[in-house]
Every structure is written in C-alpha cells, then in structure tokens.
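Tip: read the tokens left to right.
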C-alpha cells in the first residue's frame, strides 16, 4: 500500500507538471502535430479492425438472443447504444493503449537508458516539455477522433451483416438505431475519448520517465503501461458512466 500511494502521488505530481506546461505553451507545436500523426493516424487500422469484428460479433450474438422473443428487428437499438455508450470508447482506448501507449513508454524509456534524457537536462532543455507534453496532447486530441471512427466502423459492419446475412430492412435498422441515441450519448462518447486519451498519455510518459537504467527495464515499462492504462480506463469509465447517467436523470 505504501508503494501504491507513493507511485500514485508521483503520478499526480507529474501530471500536474505536464498540464501546467500545456497551458503555458512551453512546447513546440510542430512536435505535437508530428506525434498526432505517429500516435493517432498510424493507430487507425488497428482500432478500426477491432471495431469491425466487434460489430459483427455483437450483431450475431444479439440477434440470436432477440430471435427467441420475436424481436430480432430491435438488434440495431442494442448495437447503436452499446457502441456509442461503452464499446466504442472503451475498446478504442484499450487498443490505443496497446498500440500507442506502449510505444510512447518504450521510446522514452529507451532514452532514459541511453542517457538522452540527461543530455536534455545538461543542455538546459526541459525533457518534460520537449517529450511528454507533445505526446500527452496528441493522445488527448487523437483518441476522441479514433473513438468516433471506431463507432462508425463498428455500427457500419453490424449494419452490413444485419442486412446481408440476417435479411433485416436497412432503413428500419437505421431508424431504430438512431432513435435510441441522444445528444448526451454522443457528448459522453467524445468526452470519454478525451479523458481516456489524456490518461493513456500521462501514464505512458510517466512510466517512460521512471524507467530504470537497464535494458530489460524498457520491456517492463511497456508492460506496466498497458496494465495500468487498462485498469485506469475501466475505473474512469465506471465513474464517467455514472456521472453521465446522473446528468441524463437516470
């Protein structure tokens, strides 16, 4: 417990330092855009592939259960609500953490091992502003976009399967799906993307900077990044789900 609270305190102090530098603009915007491409654009294929197959599986499983009650045509309501409210944001964040979060931790951890971080300090540069801030900004900005794309891909794959394989009417499928989605659901989905992206960026950079000076420590840092990111995403998702439920009067 002592180590847990010590690590939590160090993470909070690191996060405050990063966020303070974000608002004081002590970073290069070009570095941020470069990281947005490396972290976000290059992760689109992985996130979309995951969402595509989840959409297919969700339609198959949901339709099989609803067919028992003669309500197979209502499968779209479940698919739309599930993807927008939970599956899209959570699975996109988890895949993002595995693809981009671990990459960030490995990159910064390797710089620690090879003493490049010390070189930044010796030459008077702030390693947090140079390395952490652009990556945290990139994760916070790109994950909402990836989340939105993942939701569209998952819903589209489910639509295709429902129409082609199950023989459902396409227009009715879309109408039933859009009827259950509210503006608050979309706001909640994108908000989760921002929060999860911020968490992944902060966790990955924090663990990267705290990598021990040993070659095998880089692998340990990437593993810790994935585990800690997933746990943080699930915990915060629970809190945000309850928060938005209260806002909707639930």
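Filled-in amino acids:
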């Amino acid at each position: 417990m002592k180590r847990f609270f010590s690590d939590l305190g160090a993470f909070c102090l690191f996060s405050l330092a990063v966020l303070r530098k974000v608002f004081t603009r002590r970073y290069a915007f070009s570095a941020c855009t470069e990281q947005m491409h490396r972290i976000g654009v290059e992760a689109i294929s992985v996130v979309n592939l995951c969402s595509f197959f989840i959409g297919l599986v969700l339609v198959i499983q949901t339709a099989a259960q609803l067919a028992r009650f003669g309500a197979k045509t209502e499968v779209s309501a479940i698919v739309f609500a599930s993807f927008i409210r939970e599956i899209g944001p959570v699975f996109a964040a988890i895949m993002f953490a595995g693809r981009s979060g671990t990459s960030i931790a490995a990159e910064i951890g390797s710089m620690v091992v090879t003493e490049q971080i010390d070189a930044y300090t010796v030459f008077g540069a702030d390693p947090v502003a140079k390395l952490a801030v652009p990556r945290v900004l990139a994760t916070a900005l790109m994950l909402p976009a990836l989340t939105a794309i993942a939701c569209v891909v998952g819903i589209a794959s489910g639509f295709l399967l429902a129409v082609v394989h199950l023989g459902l009417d396409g227009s009715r499928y879309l109408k039933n799906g859009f009827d259950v989605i509210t503006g608050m659901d979309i706001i909640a989905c994108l908000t989760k993307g921002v929060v999860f992206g911020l968490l992944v960026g902060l966790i990955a950079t924090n663990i990267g900077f705290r990598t021990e000076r040993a070659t095998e420590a880089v692998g340990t840092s990437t593993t810790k990044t994935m585990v800690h990111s997933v746990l943080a995403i699930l915990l915060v998702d629970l809190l945000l789900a309850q928060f938005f439920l209260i806002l909707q009067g639930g």
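The chain has one domain: 2-247. The longest helix spans residues 75-113.
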